């Protein structure tokens, strides 16, 4: 698939961009910078404005409290068992994305609501303790040239699951997991029936709707100056919220549950 979102690689970042990437890693508690931030870095002035707008939602635990409440109500579609032993890197990738995608869903969803003037008319975002971020090393982000053709085709097939009418962004989690091809094979096998009967799509849609309503409340905590880049930022961030992040929050929760690594009850 073609990638409509150019991005600055972390290794290529310099100056203010490199400093912002470091701040994002430290604040979110992850070792890689999400593609949405790396894309915003290609738009002059967009990254510093957007990051400063949502950073307090991380620091004050606002996004974390929203995640805790969301997980009590979200739909976790039941997958077939994935409890076979896997390389430690598999569970590291799953834990990292389960955490970061869900937190980012609320901060970025709140930013989209703020930019659209779609904030909830009432409600006070809850502040509180932050969730511990998984302190794990991730395998390299694979590209098509790094893996066998059949593995890359499986990555692309998995990326189509839960994304209608077609994916606009290649979810990074699958690229990290490309270094564990046997696990990708098993993952495709358990996701395929849910994609075929529509239950995966229904769960993703329901969870996105639930998160959207809560993100509108979080938007009330954003205090930012207007920016001439509002339209560009809203278009980019909303695409991630409504596609890559929006679908992967459900998948990233369902897979560790099927591996018996977390309890979703």
Structure explained in plain terms:
The protein contains 11 helices and no strands. The protein has 265 residues and is mainly α. It has one domain (12-126, 134-258). Helix 4 (62-73) runs antiparallel to helix 9 and helix 10 runs parallel beside helix 11 (244-258). The longest helix has 29 residues, at 88-116.
Labels describing this entry:
single chain; 265 residues; mainly alpha; globular
Structural class: mainly alpha
Report low-confidence residues grouped into runs of 5 or more: none
Figure out the total of helices.
11
Rg estimate, integer Å: 18 Å
Number of domains: 1
SSE ordering: HHHHHHHHHHH
Distance between the termini: 36 Å
Main β sheet profile? none
Oligomer description = single chain
Helical content stands at 55-70%
- Number of E strands: 0
Instruction: Quote the average pLDDT.
Output: 94
Percent of residues in beta strands?
Answer: under 5%
Coarse morphology: globular
